[in-house]
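Work Package 3 (structural annotation) set out to generate three-dimensional models for the target panel prioritized at the project kickoff. During this period the team completed the workflow that converts sequence records into discrete structure tokens, so that structures can be stored uniformly alongside our sequence database. As a representative example, we reproduce one entry of 136 residues exactly as it appears in the project archive.
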Amino acid sequence: MAFSYFGGAEEPPDPERENYREAADFAFFAVQFGYTKADYDALTGTEKAFILKAYEEKVVSDSNLLAGAVLNAISNAFRKKGKPFQKLWKKKPKRANREQQQATISEVLAADAKQGTAWIDAIYAANGRKRRKKVE
């Protein structure tokens, strides 16, 4: 391959090299994604490039996940005696919708004002527990 800023002449395309590259691309798509020859031929060059990029991102993501899992396992294996295990996945609480939260609270307060707190006593009774009464 010659670049114009180096002053070289463009090489003519080699049909044998192009056929080899096309066959290697088809083999990759057939093995990795289960494509048939007709499926592969139906793809455009842009579609092939996007599929390859998505596959590359998946491989990188999977390898990062594996590296994190191995690091966590090693750190747990070599932790000090009595120190708790580190969890692989840390839960992140979902952000609450303020309007929905306020609407729910107002509904509960309205129901409490209308019906009282008998529903709380029913929940405690269904679970076989006694509700503590407030001491005033």
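DSSP finds five helices and no strands in the chain.
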